[in-house]
TrEMBL record:
It comes from the Bacteria. The keyword Metal-binding applies. Gene3D superfamilies: Ribonuclease H-like superfamily/Ribonuclease H. This is Ribonuclease H. It comes from Aminobacterium colombiense (strain DSM 12261 / ALA-1). Residues 1-136 form the RNase H type-1 domain.
Length: 198
């Protein structure tokens, strides 16, 4: 029997959101995966977004029997019709999910986050990749840099961060989360403009 995992992530609830889904064949091999940036959504909307990604692929492949797993108790219990769907915006997503399930015998199972890691990684990747594009478009000239050593800068702002151009690293949360940030980009640009230090 096929199995699928879904997940959604929202940073802010509501905030930047992403969805991820993974499909496994009867032998347990991954045959498909997808992630999508959802814009500003709540956690529950993002979870449904991940489920809908999976259900569309199931329908496209004509799969008739599947076990669907996720770490959102709300979505799993609502899809099993154990919990009512009271929120109007979730009701629309629930109805779309039910429609996509026509002709398919699906069993829904809740799993802890650690057993849903592939879908979780994909949902966060959707946000990270979108945010990375935004960083590249940021006004890098607005970053105030103070050189401490030939390879170390301090980026000044609402908070100060250390930028290490030798090891291509920064101490800011953006870099820690996605290995890319405006501080490092600005420092590297400054280095290109000044090939040698004074």
């Amino acid at each position: 029997m096929y199995s699928g995992h879904f997940d959604g992530a929202s940073r802010g609830n509501p905030g930047e959101a992403g969805a991820g889904a993974v499909l496994y064949n009867e032998e347990g091999h991954m045959v498909w995966q997808k992630f999508a940036y959802l814009g500003s959504q709540t956690n529950n909307e993002a979870e449904y977004g991940g489920l809908l990604l999976l259900l569309r692929e199931i329908q496209l492949r004509g799969i008739k029997k599947i076990v669907i797993r996720g770490d959102s108790r709300l979505v799993i219990c609502q899809m099993k019709k154990e919990w009512k769907v009271n929120s109007p915006h979730l009701k629309e997503l629930w109805e779309e999910a039910q429609s996509l399930l026509k002709g398919c015998q699906a069993t829904f199972e809740w799993v802890p986050r650690k057993e849903n890691s592939n879908a979780d990684l994909l949902s966060n990747k959707a946000i990270d990749e979108h945010s990375g594009k935004a960083v590249l478009k940021a006004d890098l000239n607005a970053v105030r840099l103070e050189r401490i050593t030939p390879t170390i800068f301090i980026a000044h702002g609402s908070e100060d961060y250390a930028v290490d151009i030798l090891h291509r690293a920064c101490t800011c949360p953006a870099f820690v989360n996605r290995k890319q940030c405006k501080h490092l980009e600005a420092a590297l640009r400054k280095l290109e403009q000044k090939p040698s230090f004074d």
